[in-house]
Amino acid sequence: MANLKEIRSRIASINSTMQITSAMKMVSAAKSKKAQDAISAMKPYANKLTELLGFLGTALGNDNPYMPKVEVPENILIVAITSDRGLCGAFNSNIVKRALSLVENTYAGKNVTFHTIGKKGNDVLKKTEKVTQFYAHLFDNLTFERVSEIAQELMQAYVLHKYDKIILVYNSFKNVATQIVVEETFLPITPMQQEQAIETDYIFEPSKQEIIETIVPRSLKIQFYKVLRDSFAAEHGARMTAMHKATDNATELRDQLKLTYNKARQATITNEILEIVGGAEALNG
């Protein structure tokens, strides 16, 4: 049985760990609430824009440079979105697993490359030697302006035929305990299915050219911003849950150690009493 000093040291260490995990849980809870409010307010607007893009894709036809260019994509870009920091459970590993699964299964034999957003995903995926761009510290100051620049780069690369398909892989926020790994096509724009599209003549206002140059790119940027906001909210939810579980586990371990400490202390006292009694009997004998 471990000596009392060693057990006391372990209990003190666990108490320090509990203070850290509890504080991190509180910080993540505050950040998560703010991020949840932001994505909850944005999702309906962004989802409606995505629907609008589908209708515009059908209506504009071949005039839209963001529509599918090839029947069978050969050059695939996967944008893997993770966090810059750890201590958030399986949040990052789930994205890495899905990204690698796409390479090995869905797009096996294709020319697949990665763009990574978030240090944790980049640290793993760069070992594949397929990472061609890493966006660092984006979540330190997540603004529409910064995200728009990245979205513009992706759109430009697609228009110039560098990629046939661009896929976003990220965690979508459901609640603080649940994050859903989503694989979403950013480009090309997915047109409405024939049965969904309404047979009608479209009147474009402003002009068709202005829609292509202004409205469609802005809608894509907002869609990309929504994805990053969604991932940001999911990250804090995952970290809050992970720190809550870590605090609970530390509490359980501390209680077990306290029980072990009390048993060891009682055993020590009992041994001392036995030694005293044994010595007294020896003297009397």
Structural summary, described in words:
It is found in: Cell membrane; Membrane. It holds the Pfam family ATP-synt. This protein has five helices and five strands, in the order H-E-H-E-H-E-H-E-E-H. Strand 4 and strand 5 form a beta hairpin. With 285 residues, the chain is of the alpha/beta class. The mean pLDDT is 86. The radius of gyration is 28 Å and the shape is elongated.
Which properties best describe this structure?
5 strands; 285 residues; 5 helices; alpha/beta; elongated; single chain
Shape: elongated
* Average of per-residue pLDDT values: 86
Q: Sheet bearing the most strands, described? A: 5 strands, mixed
Kindly name the structural category. Answer: alpha/beta
- Our measurement of the CA-to-CA distance between the termini, rounded to an integer number of angstroms, reads 33 Å
Radius of gyration: 28 Å
Oligomer: single chain
Order of helices and strands: HEHEHEHEEH
Number of helices: 5
Helix share, percent: 55-70%
Uncertain spans: none
Strand order across the biggest sheet? Answer: 3-2-1-4-5
Report the sheet-strand fraction: 5-15%
Count of individual beta strands:
5
